[in-house]
């Protein structure tokens, strides 16, 4: 490092420039992420309403849980943590996240293995599977709502034709099938993304390994479980985590595909409903804070357990 | 042996066929429906049976849908330009300059991109109201920074880190300032990465629903996803499936063309955002 005439070393100069390069981005992120988050948490500790955002008073943790003991000696618990609608939403979200990510991983793996093989028309297939990913979520929700329509939907028609069902199913409206409908659409839409992430991992596996295994006459299934799977595990783990975080915050698909169905309502949907539609602004803020806390714990566990070098510092 | 080989090849192509049909069919069916009218909508047609543009006329004839497209184009473009502008300098600092706390900063940026957006909704709602942006496009432009900026910074940082040191060293020896290095040395090399990240951020902003739904209150300020999500018929019971499918096709075709055209770049950008590390 050579010293400059103004007395600052080159690396000091570069660090000073780096600070000014980062400052606008950090200010922007503070403005749209950190500050609103702090305000949301603050709102969750008050009794603010939508019509009077500045009229709220501090009520502590009453939106989460509060206890009132009546004169008769009866205990009355209130707040989100004893709200059956909230726990229903938590259960829906968790179930949705695990089931959808499970199927997306299995199907994504299959699609990625197919795309990793060399065959005629591979480019065409890769283009085709990008289509569900490119379609806006709201549009896919509407497209599938039409296909799953109870009276005129093509899905019921196909299933009836194949003899798999004997009467038409109200997929999005019925309590038993609303969650299934959401899962079908999400799996359809997100498997391509999963497949592409896994494919990127597969392509880093050296081809010689397969060649050697083939010459030795090892069963391809065995090769997959003993060689391929361990090698792509890091890529697979990152893909699963990203999907999981995305699934836990799902909003748009549920809102449009199964409006007002308690069987499919997720944490994001119920928080917004309370916040905006039911004029329980602070109560909804408390629920969204809980969702944030759940995801924060999940991310910390992942980083801590996985010891993943996400910043890529060690690459240098 | 050969019979087995033929069978396994057949099985493989059958699997390929299933994948392609499953991926493409819903969009194909939306196109078929968008050209059907009247009673045709209420019989299930697997093949196009008529070609009527009535649904498209209905959608485009209503003034608000074109307005929604204009809103979405304006919002997504402005968001992307703003995010890229801030991200280029920031990712240069994160990728090429060593300073303390760099790893932590990158982790924080990644964490923001995984944020549940509902967690900031109440606070952003207050901010939007406070700034007087409610029911204007600027409410969305402001709030979309939360997911476009971390994403663009992250991808551009991984991209810049992979560029060789030598190209910068020569400029440093010549006494170039960091600003000159960015604009003269890196920017020309960054164009492909900028196109990819810009496109992905554009798609993200174009598709966003939660903020757009919450921060607009009149039909003229809606973005495309909100307009389609809330499209309803003359009566409450009657859902206008034909026009909804026509609207869906109109907003999806440009996206699909873009994605297919930039296929390789998009796949590279997606995996840089996900698998790196």
Distance between the termini of chain A: 19 Å
Classified by CATH, the class of the largest domain in chain B is: Mainly Alpha
Radius of gyration of chain B: 24 Å
Strand content of chain B: under 5%
Percentage of residues assigned to helices of chain B: over 70%
Sheet having the most strands of chain A: 2 strands, antiparallel
Structural class of chain B: mainly alpha
Which CATH class of the domain at 86-277 in chain A? Mainly Alpha
N-end to C-end Cα span of chain B: 43 Å
How many β-strand stretches of chain B? Answer: 0
CATH architecture group name of the largest domain in chain B:
Orthogonal Bundle
Explained architecture:
The complex is a heterodimer of chains A (316) and B (277). Chain A is mainly alpha-helical and 316 residues long. Chain A has helices spanning 10-44, 84-116, 122-134, 137-147, 154-162, 178-202, 207-215, 220-248, 252-257, 267-277, 281-306, and strands at residues 66-69, 75-78. Chain A has a domain at 86-277: MetI-like (MetI-like fold, Orthogonal Bundle), CATH 1.10.3720.10. The radius of gyration of chain A is 26 Å and the shape is globular. With 277 residues, chain B is mainly alpha-helical. In chain B, α1 packs across α11 and α3 (63-96) runs parallel beside α6 (137-161). Classes of the chains: A mainly alpha (316), B mainly alpha (277). The interface between A and B is large, with 104 and 99 residues.
In short:
In chain A, 66% of the residues lie in helices and 3% in strands. Chain A has 316 residues and is an all-alpha fold. In chain A, strands 1-2 form a two-stranded antiparallel sheet.
Observed structural traits:
heterodimer; A: 316 residues; mainly alpha; MetI-like fold; two-stranded antiparallel ribbon; 2 strands; globular; disordered N terminus; disordered C terminus; B: 277 residues; 2 domains; 12 helices
């Amino acid at each position: 490092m050579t010293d400059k005439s103004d007395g600052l070393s080159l690396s000091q100069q570069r660090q000073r420039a780096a600070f000014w390069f980062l400052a606008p981005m950090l200010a922007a992120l503070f403005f749209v992420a950190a500050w609103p988050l702090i305000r949301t948490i603050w709102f969750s500790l008050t009794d603010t309403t939508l019509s009077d955002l500045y009229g709220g008073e501090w009520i502590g943790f009453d939106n989460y849980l509060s206890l009132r003991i009546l004169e008769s000696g009866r205990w009355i618990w209130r707040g989100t943590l004893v709200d059956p609608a909230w726990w229903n939403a938590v259960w829906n979200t968790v179930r949705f996240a695990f089931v959808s990510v499970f199927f997306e991983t299995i199907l994504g793996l299959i699609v990625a293995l197919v795309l990793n093989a060399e065959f005629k028309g591979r480019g065409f297939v890769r283009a085709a599977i990008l289509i569900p990913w490119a379609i806006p979520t709201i549009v896919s929700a509407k497209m599938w709502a039409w296909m799953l329509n109870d009276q005129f939907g093509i899905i019921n028609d196909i299933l009836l034709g194949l003899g798999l069902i004997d009467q038409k199913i109200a997929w999005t409206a019925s309590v038993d099938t609303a969650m299934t409908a959401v899962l079908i659409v999400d799996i359809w839409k997100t498997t391509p993304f999963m497949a592409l992430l896994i494919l990127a991992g597969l392509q880093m596996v050296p081809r010689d390994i397969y060649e050697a295994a083939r010459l030795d006459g090892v069963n391809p299934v065995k090769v997959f479980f003993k060689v391929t799977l361990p090698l792509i595990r890091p890529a697979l783990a990152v893909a699963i985590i990203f999907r999981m975080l995305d699934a836990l915050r799902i909003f748009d698909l549920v809102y449009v595909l199964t409006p007002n169905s308690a069987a499919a309502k997720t944490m994001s949907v119920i928080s917004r409903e309370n916040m905006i539609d039911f004029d329980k602004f602070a109560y909804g803020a408390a629920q969204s804070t809980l969702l944030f806390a759940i995801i924060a714990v999940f991310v910390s566990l992942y980083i801590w357990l996985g010891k993943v070098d996400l910043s890529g510092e060690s690459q240098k | 042996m050969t019979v087995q080989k033929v069978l396994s090849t057949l099985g493989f192509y059958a699997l390929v066929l299933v994948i392609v049909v499953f991926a493409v069919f819903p969009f194909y069916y939306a196109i078929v429906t968008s050209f059907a009218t009247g009673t045709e909508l209420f019989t299930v047609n697997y093949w196009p049976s008529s070609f009527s543009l009535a649904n498209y006329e209905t959608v485009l004839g209503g003034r608000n849908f074109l307005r929604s497209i204009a809103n979405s184009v304006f919002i997504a473009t402005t968001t992307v330009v703003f995010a890229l502008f801030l991200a280029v300098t920031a990712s240069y600092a994160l990728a090429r300059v060593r300073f303390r706390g760099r790893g932590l900063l990158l982790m924080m940026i990644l964490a923001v991109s995984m944020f549940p957006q509902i967690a900031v909704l109440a606070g952003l709602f207050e901010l939007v109201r406070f700034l007087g942006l409610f029911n204007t496009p600027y409410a969305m432009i402001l709030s979309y920074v939360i997911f476009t900026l971390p994403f663009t910074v992250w991808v551009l940082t991984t991209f810049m880190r992979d560029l060789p040191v030598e190209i910068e060293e020569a400029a440093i020896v010549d006494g170039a300032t960091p600003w000159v290095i960015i604009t003269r040395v890196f920017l020309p090399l960054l164009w492909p990465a900028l196109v990819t990240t810009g496109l992905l951020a554009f798609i993200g902003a174009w598709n966003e629903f939660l903020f757009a739904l919450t921060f607009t209150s009149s039909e003229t300020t809606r973005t495309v996803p909100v307009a389609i999500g809330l499209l309803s018929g003359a009566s409450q019971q009657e859902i206008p499936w034909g026009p909804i499918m026509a609207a869906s096709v109109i907003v999806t075709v440009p996206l699909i063309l873009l994605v297919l055209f930039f296929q390789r770049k998009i796949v590279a950008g997606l995996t840089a955002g996900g698998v790196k590390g």
